[in-house]
Amino acid sequence: MLIADMHCDTISALYWRKKKGHTEHLPANSLSIDLNKMQSGDYCLQNFAIFVDMGKVDDPFETALEMIALYKQELELCGEGIAPALCWEDICRNREAGKISAFLSMEEGGILKGSLSNLQKLYQLGMRMIGLSWNYPNEIGMPNLQKDKNGNPLFTLRSNQGLTEFGVEVVREAQRLGMIVDVSHLSDGGFWDVVQHTSGPFVASHSNASAICGVTRNLTDEMIRALADKGGVMGINFCEDFLCMEHKREQGRLLDAIICHIRHIIQVGGEDCCGLGSDFDGIEGNRDMQTAGDMKKLVLRLEQEKFSPRQIDKICGENVLRVYQEVLR
C-alpha cells in the first residue's frame, strides 16, 4: 500500500532555515520529511504546503513566490525520486515510474491579498490546492481560532462567521481552475459556505474529529457527514493537541488516538472520507509518529486493529487520490 499525505510544512521550514543560514535540503535533512524518509514510508504523493505566517512577513504573496521557487529548486535536487504533479495524468505517470508525486498547496488565503489574479498566478505556477485560512482573519473569511481580550487562544470556542463575498469568489474560481478547496483552519460558518458554494469534492487536509478531541481545529460529526456527502476527504492530523486532550498525551498512546479518530470518522462519514494529513514539520511533533518513515507503524497498527485491506488502502491513499482524479484538470 502507498501513502498519500495531504499536508506538510516542510518547504516553509526549509525556507526559514535557509533565511537563518542553514543548508538542509529535501533529499535528506533532520526534519520529519525528506526524500529518504518518504521512500522508506512507501509514499506515492506528498502535498507540500506554502505556509505563510501573516504575522511575520511584509508581503505574503511575494513570500509565497519565494517559497515556490525554493520548492522547485528542492525537487530538482532530489533527482528522479520525486516529480511534480499538476494533473491526474502526472500522478499516474509518476506512480508507474516509481516516483513520488509532489503536490503544491497553499495554507493561508491571505497570500492572495484579496486578488483573484494572484490565485490565477499561483495556479500557473503549479499550485493545485488552496487552504482558505490559517489562524488570522483574511480577505476570504475567518479562522476557527478566536482569542480572548488578552490575546490568549480559545481552543474550544467555534466561530459561525462565514466567507466574505471575495471568499465565495475564490471558491468558485478555484473550482473553475480545477484547484482543490481546503477548509482546515476555517471557521464553522466558512465551512458551511463552502458546502453551499461547491458542486463537487473539497477537503479538510489536516483535521481530526471534534467528537474525539473537542478543539476548534477538528470537524464536528455534522461537518464530517457534509464533507462525505460532497465526496470529500479529511486528512488525519498527527498533532498531539488535535488527537487527544492533554492528560492523555503519552508516548505509546498517540497511535491509539489516531486509530480512534479514524474509526470514528469512518463510523460517521463512511470509509471513503478518511485520509492522511500528517502536518509534519508544521507541528512540534508526535512521539509515536515522528517522521514520514514511521507511516509503516500506522499501517501495521491498522492491520492489527482488523481494518480490512481495502479500508487500509483507502485511508492511506486511495481516498485522497480519488478526489484528485475528480477535481484536477
Task: Present the secondary structure layout.
Layout: E1 3-5, H1 10-19, H2 35-40, E2 43-51, H3 60-77, E3 82-84, H4 88-96, E4 100-107, H5 116-124, E5 127-131, E6 146-147, E7 153-154, H6 165-177, E8 180-182, H7 188-197, E9 203-204, H8 221-229, E10 233-236, H9 240-243, H10 254-269, E11 274-276, H11 295-304, H12 309-327
Parallel strand pairs: 1-2, 2-4, 3-4, 4-5, 5-8, 9-10, 10-11
Antiparallel strand pairs: 6-7
Task: Walk me through the structure.
- The protein has 329 residues and is of the alpha/beta class.
- The protein has one domain (3-327): TIM Barrel (Alpha-Beta Barrel).
- The protein is 40% helix and 13% strand.
- It has helices at 10-19, 35-40, 60-77, 88-96, 116-124, 165-177, 188-197, 221-229, 240-243, 254-269, 295-304, 309-327; strands at residues 3-5, 43-51, 82-84, 100-107, 127-131, 146-147, 153-154, 180-182, 203-204, 233-236, 274-276.
- Strands 1, 2, 3, 4, 5 and 8 form a 6-stranded parallel sheet that branches. Strands 9-10-11 form a 3-stranded parallel sheet.
- β4, α5 and β5 (127-131) form a beta-alpha-beta unit.
- The model has no long low-confidence stretch (mean pLDDT 95).
